[in-house]
Amino acid sequence: MNETLKQAFDFQTQGNFREAERIYNQLLKETPNDIQVLNLLARIKLDEKNFRESLTINNKILKLDKNNENALFESAIALKNLGDLVQAIELYSRVIEINPENIKAYYNLGAIYADYGDVEKSIYNFNKVLESNPDDVDTRYFIALSYFKNKQYKNGLPYFESRLCRKSSFMTQLHTYPNLMKNAQLWQGQNVPDKTIYTYYEAGFGDVLMYSRYLSLLQERCERIIFKPQQPLAELFKENFPNIYVMDYFEPEKKIHFDYHIPMLSLPLALGLDDNTIFTSKKIYLKANQEKVKSYHERFFDNKCFKIGIKWQGNVTYDLERVIDVSQFIRLFQIPNTKFYSFQTFDGSERIEELRKHYDIVDIGKTLTNFSDTAGAIENLDLVISNDTSLVHIAGAMGKPCWVLLPYLYNWRWHQDLSKCDWYDTVKPFRQPTPGDWTSVFDILYERLKEIVS
Which CATH architecture has domain 3-159? Predict the structure, then answer.
């Protein structure tokens, strides 16, 4: 590498892309077909997320050297980000033909096939990565999700232990209860009839609601359970699991004792559940507080309309493809003999006042202080229509009819067969036919809702 090229490369590694690009372009004026310089320039465009320019430069390289591994690999990255999964798959496959040891190509193929819905090929490619690097945390986690989507839980559960939320939950407990965690063992599923097991939340509200179905099975293995959910869930769980000690907040270490501990999402593995038994626990395992049901009925639901609860947005810090523009619901509002109740809270709730200027919508969200309140309101509904959020899980666990609206690339838990929901008998999935197409989904909802109401 000559001195000028080295200087540009140093700028690039320092993140000074503008200066590096200036030098690369000068060098290309002298030698326009210098593949090394073109590779470095294409990489800058990729790092800047300028995928089309990166692809243009790499195409030039491939005209000079059709088997250039780096250009093929980075072209595949650009194509994937531009939404051309078919072409990206083809280029990653060519990379592997040229270099069967390119583990990153196998990993990226596994990720694309997972998105594309070809779970078997996803699992194959992730396994190729694990053959070379069996302890790779990311690959172990993502192969678990592919196994789950294919309903192969016995294969996937051991890999699922590599998840990041498990590690962060451990760190939280070690910080909160350093002495207890030091002396307590990680529960592995054994019967401990005279012992106390401490299980604690990880991930989001929906995950904890879904996995709380296993608390009754855990009760059969020990004398006492201490359970720490997120605080907004605590009252609901206290009402439904009277024989379990449910914490509202973390308590001082000196006031509690446990012999074993386990993060909540590890319960299916520890309980020895497999592809069939993971679904065999009670499908309806949460009930609403009857006083709250009555209170909500008197305040908001004392009418003869078909009552529908809706939500269109969850946590916007991730999975933005799950967010639905509330305007999609407007045609449903116009169906006679219906009444709509918004369960939207926090982000997204600012749209409600705008809608209420034109449509008769009740803002239930502003009355909700915790999930016990949510359950009390849900019990008064005839139907829930929501994107993939905690509202779906609480409705499903209560046995309420619910339509869950899924993006084209959807979460593993809904599996490949979307004709039914394996977790909840009363939940029906509706998926986008193509990425971003909520309109087609609501066309179907409109016709089905008209039939039901009429």
Answer: Alpha Horseshoe (1.25)
